[in-house]
Amino acid sequence: VVLKNSITVMESSAKQETQPKPRLIVRLGVFLASHHILFSVICCSAGIIALLLLPSLAKNTYLSENALIPGSANPLFSTEDAIEANRFMKGIEAVAGDSIGGIDMAKFIAQQIEDMGAEVCYHKFLPHSKHFHPLKFFTSMSKDMAIQPNGTDTNFGINTIGIIRAPRGDGKEAIVLVTPYNSQRVHSNELLSLALGFSVFSLLSRAAWLSKDIVWVSADSQFGEYASVSAWLNQYHNPVFLSHSVISDTKIYGADHIYDGNTEKGEFKAFKRAGTMAAALIFKVGQTRRYGDRDSVTMYAEASNGQMPNLDLLNVVHYLAVHRQGFRVNIAAFSSLLSSAWLRVISEFFHTLGTVLRKINPDWKLDIAVPDYVEGTANLANSIYNQALGVPTGSHGAFRDYQVDAVSLEFSPTFNVRNENAKSLFLLRGGRLVEGVVRSVNNLLEKFHQSFFLYFLTAPSKFISVGVYMIPFALLLAPLPIVAAALADGRKTMEKLAEKSIDDNKANGSAGFLQSKGGSWKWLQAAKVLFVIQLWAVLVSLLPYYITQIPGATPMQSAVIWAMLSIVILIALYVMFGSPYSAGVEWKLLKATMITSISIGLGLMSIINFATAQLGALIVIPMCLFSRPLKARSGMNFLPRAVLLASNITLAALGFPPAALLILKGLSKGSWTVAVGDFWVWMEFLWEWSSATYLYLFLVHLPCWLLCIHVLLHPCRQAESKMKQE
Question: Where are the membrane-spanning stretches (predicted)?
Fold first, then answer.
C-alpha cells in the first residue's frame, strides 16, 4: 500500500511538472491588465517627463555628407559685386516708382539678366481662390495653383526667371535661388533682396566651376510668397498650354508674353526650364533691427504636413553663416515661453537632477544650463507647433511638395539702409553666404540623403532625431491596448487567453476557446455607437463645403451655422440608429471601443504628421484613460470622488477642439482670448493649405471627445444592478 501511494504521488508530481505554463508574454499581459490603472498612470507620467526632457537630450548638428565640404574654397564674391548690387538697386528703385502693375520692374530685371548673357523668361500667374473641397486633402496643392482664367483683367503676378547653363554640367540638375518682392508696393528691404540676388546671379554667370544649372526666380509676392513660387513650380513640372490672345491694354499674353501698351507687338519670352532641382534657397532681407550687435539670419524649414528638408542643408547654412560670415543664426521660438516662470522652475529642477546623475555616471549629460533649457524648450515648442499645424512657414514649402530640399533665410540687418558703407558690407557678407551654399550643393553627386529628414530643432545647431522624440509618444500609447483588453471583458478574457496559450498546440483547445467566446456579441453595440459617431464626424467635416456657398457670411455666422448643423445631424443620426444608451451598452465596452479607435487614429496620424499625433496624444490619451461615468462613483469616498470628478471634467473641457485652439493661441501669441469666429478662421486656414491636421481634428479627435462625453454621462444601470446582485 505504501509503495502504491508513493507511486501515485510521483505520477501526480510528474504530471504537474510536465504541464506547460502560459507563455511569458501572456502572463505579462494578464499582470498588466489586472493593474491597468497603475500602469496607465506610470506610462502617462513617464511620457510627459520624457517630453520635458527632450531639450536636454538634443544633440549638436553635424554634416553627414562629406561631399558638401562647406567653406573649403575661398569666396569669389568681392566688393565689385557689392558695388554692382548697389547700382542695380538704384536702377530698379527708379523704375519701381513709374512701374504699372509691376511690368516695368519685371522688364528691367529681365533686361539686366540678358545683358549678362543669361537666359530669361517670364511667368504669369493668377491669385489662388479659397474654396473648400473635400477631395482637396487627397490631391496635390500645386494643382490648385494652376493658372485658371477668372475673368479679371489686371489681377495677376509676374515672375521673372533667369537661367545660367553650367559650363561643366550636362543640364540634368539645377540649383534654384528665389528672391521674393511685392511688385505693387516695393519696400527698401525688398529692393535690397533683389540687389543681393542679382549680384550673386551675376557672379555665378562668370563661374567656371559650376556643374549644375542656376535658376534665379524674382518672385512677385503680391498674392503671397508661397503662391508665386508654387505657381511657377507647377508650370515647371506640369506644363500648361494657353492661347496667346491679347486681354486688353496693359496685360500679359498667356503665361510668357508681356505687352506694355506702347508697342504694337508684345515682348514674348518662352517659358524655359533647367534640370532636376537639387536644392533651393529662398532669401530675403527683413526689416532693420534697432538693437543687436551684429546682423542675424533666421532659418525657416517647416513645410506642409510636418515635412522638413534634409538636415545637412541647414547645417551648411549654419556653418557658413556663423563660422565664415559672422552672422547670428536664429530659429523661430515661442516668445511667451521665454519669460515663463513655471518653465524656469522645471529647468532648475532638471538642472539639479542632471548634476546629480552626472556625478553617478559622467556620460549622462542632462545638466544643461537653465537659460539654454528655456530657450531650447521655446524653440522646440515652436518647431512642434509649426510641424503639427501642417502649414509651410515660407515659400520653401512649395519645393518640398516636389521632394526638393529647400530652406528660407531672412536677413535682419542692424544698419540703416541709407548707410552705404554698412549696406555694402552687408551685401558682401550675404553674397558670400549664398555663394558658399551654392558651392556646397554644386559638389553633390546625388540628392541629399545622408542626414535626417525627421527631426525637431531646439537651436540652430541642436536637433532631436526621430529615435529620441518617439519615446514620449510610445510611452503615452503603451497603456492603450492593455486598458482596452482589461475593459473588454475583465480578467476573464485574459485568463482564457492564458488557457488558450497552454493548449495552443492542440486543435480542440483553440476551437473550444472560440466556441466559448462565440456567443458574446455585446461589443457589436459599442461598435455601432462608434460607427454612428464616425459617420457624424465625416458629415461635420464636409459641412464647410456648403457653408462657404452662403454669400456674405461672416466667420462668426459661419461658425454658429456649423455648430447648429452639427448638433442637428447628431440628433438625426441618433433618431435613425438609436441612442447610445438605448441598447444597454456597458460603459466599459464603450470606453474600450473609444481607446481602440484613438489607438488606430494616432497610429495612422503618426505616419502622416508625427507632430500632430504627439500633440493630440498629450490631450486625448489622458482624457480617454481616466474617463469614468459620473454616476459610477457612488461607492467612493468624498476625496477620491471629487478628484476624479474634477479631473474628468477638466480633461473633457481641454479636449474640446475650440479649447485646444485657445491653448495653442495662448502659447504661440500670448493671447488667451478667442472669439467664436476664430475657430472658423482657423479651420479655413487649415483646409486652405490642405493640412492633414484638419482631418485629424474631425476624424480622430472630435469622435474621441464625443465618445468620452458619452462615457461620462453613462447612466450605469447595468453596473448598479450587478452590484445589487452581488
Answer: 30-54, 466-488, 529-547, 559-577, 642-664, 693-713
167 φ, ψ (degrees, to nearest 5): -70, -25
Query: What span, in angstroms and rounded, lies between the C-alpha atoms of 315 and 159?
Result: 30
Cα distance between residue 191 and residue 93, in whole Å: 7
How far is residue 575's CA from residue 61's CA, in Å, rounded to a whole number? 58
- Helix or strand run (H / E) with residue 618: helix 610-625
DSSP E strand stretches across 186-302: 213-220, 251-253, 257-259, 267-268, 276-285, 296-300
The pLDDT assigned to 384 comes to 93
Q: What is the spatial distance between Cα 492 and Cα 495, in angstroms, rounded to a whole number?
A: 5
Task: With both helix axes pointing from N to C terminus, report the angle between 657-669 and 676-688 in degrees, rounded to the nearest 10.
Answer: 80
Angle in degrees, CA 222, 227, 230, rounded to 5? 140
In angstroms, the CA 173 to CA 166 distance is: 9
By DSSP bridging, strand 406-412 and strand 276-285 are: parallel
- Contacts for 161 with CB less than 8 Å, ≥ 6 apart: 120, 121, 122, 123, 215, 216, 217, 218, 232, 272
What is the rounded (10 degree) CA torsion for 124, 127, 131, 137?
Answer: 60
Q: Which pTM value belongs to this model?
A: 0.85
CA dist 241 and 29 (Å) reads 63
Tell me which residue of 285, 323, 316, 317 sits closest to 299, measured CA to CA: 317
In the chain, count H helices and then E strands: 29, 14
Contact between residue 498 and residue 22 where contact means Cβ atoms under 8 Å apart: yes
| Alpha-carbon torsion (504, 507, 508, 514), positive or negative | positive
Identify the pLDDT of residue 265.
43
Contact indicator for 398, 300 with CB cutoff of 8 Å: no
* DSSP sequence for 425-447: HHHHHHHHHHHHHHHHHHT-SS-
DSSP 183: S
At 701, list the grid cell: 479627435
Distances (CA, A) of 390 to 288, 306, 348, 535: 30, 6, 33, 25
Delimiting residues of CATH 3.40.630.10 domain(s) in the chain: 79-130+155-238+270-332+393-460
Give 367-411 as a 3 state SS string. Answer: CCCHHHHHHHHHHHHHHHHHHHHCCCCCCHHHHHCCCCCEEEEEE
3-state secondary structure of 118: coil
**79-130+155-238+270-332+393-460: CATH class:** alpha beta
Task: Grade residue 491 by pLDDT with cuts at 50, 70 and 90.
Answer: very low
Q: Residue 143 CB: number of other CB atoms within 10 A?
A: 10
pLDDT by residue (tens digit) across 136-193? Answer: 666 655 444 444 444 455 678 899 999 999 999 888 999 999 999 998 888 888 999 9
107 CA to centre of own chain:
38
Instruction: Render pLDDT for 555-613 as a digit per residue (tens, 0 to 9).
Output: 899 999 999 999 999 999 988 988 777 767 788 888 888 999 999 999 999 999 999 99
